[in-house]
Amino acid sequence: MPRAEDAVIHQLADRRTARLRGADQVHFLAVRDENGTVCAWADTYLDAAHGIAQIEDVVTADSHVRRGHADTVLATALQRASGYGLVFLLADPDDWPSGWYARRGFTPIGRSHVFTRTAAGS
Description:
four-stranded mixed sheet; 4 strands
């Protein structure tokens, strides 16, 4: 984001700090290429008391797609979540990643909807 304002970069980076409060154990996973560049990443949120693990933000950098990096980061996240009674992630059922997740053993268990109110006249 070379053209982003400093405030935008700060907000994006600050979100990672806030995410550390998301569960008892939070892991930020990344796959790097041979040059040390981050190719893919994901977050895991592990709540051992309730036996729940969430995998979030599985992303591959555009310049590194279709090289298995997302498979590696997802497999690592699943390994960290092994032994948890419920392991879940959120995916739009109409977007391509839902099929990719299905091929890796995930099945839909529900739907959620989010509604926001905008200011009048917006």
